Automatic annotation (TrEMBL):
Domain Lipid/polyisoprenoid-binding YceI-like: 6-176
Source species of the chain: Lacihabitans soyangensis
SMART domains reported for this sequence: YceI (SM00867)
Gene3D superfamilies for this protein: Lipid/polyisoprenoid-binding, YceI-like (2.40.128.110)
Name of this chain's protein: Polyisoprenoid-binding protein
Length: 195
């Protein structure tokens, strides 16, 4: 059994952003400032990745304090009762004609789990000037906020609604190889403990 590699997110070179329709004519953009993940691969093969991401829901920012407070309130993320947004991967598909992988998993918002798909573009693996092995990805996708019961809205006098249902997600993620976990040794140790 091959070694399993652990990767750590480089916070300084990563971001999780989103945009949503406003007044049906433009977009509001935002991001989450605090997030982390456990990422493991077999060797450096990211098609084998096991991904567990968690986001501090209260770290949402859109550039407007009043709007941010509303997004943190019960109408939306209800951060008092649901402190984290999480994503746990289930499968990663083979590369397609667009040079992207399909990443499937469970996205949990306000305590509700939904199966979602994201597209992942692998940027490659490179050694930085200090000898650290790094990998980069662009992750994109679209979800509907109503799937998590986030249905607050306001009707406009001229017709239509204030904010759309579709949320476009875009992430730039850079990770660093932080070591190996010898699964063979782990299995042997587990077998010894059970004897």
């Amino acid at each position: 059994m091959p070694n399993q590699t652990k990767w750590s997110i480089d916070q300084a070179h990563s971001d999780i952003t989103f945009k949503i329709r406003h007044l049906m004519i433009a977009h509001v953009k935002g991001s989450f400032k605090t997030f982390d993940a456990n990422i493991y691969t077999y060797g450096t093969d990211f098609s084998t990745a096991e991904i567990d991401v968690w986001i501090d829901a209260a770290s949402i920012t859109t550039g407007d304090d009043n709007r941010d407070e509303h997004l943190k309130a019960m109408d939306f993320l209800d951060v008092v009762n649901h402190k984290q947004i999480s994503f746990v991967s289930s499968t990663i598909g083979k590369i397609n004609e667009d040079q992207k992988h399909e990443l499937w998993g469970e996205l949990t918002i306000v305590g509700i789990k939904q199966n979602v798909k994201f597209d992942v573009e692998f940027g490659g693996i490179m050694k930085d000037p200090w000898g650290n092995e790094r990998a980069g990805f662009t992750v994109t996708g679209k979800i509907k906020r109503a799937d998590w019961g986030l249905v607050w809205n306001s009707n406009l006098e001229a017709g239509g609604i204030m904010i759309g249902d579709d949320i476009n997600i875009a992430c730039e993620i850079e990770v660093t190889n932080v070591g190996f976990k010898d699964l063979k040794m782990e299995v042997e140790n587990s077998a010894i403990e059970t004897v």
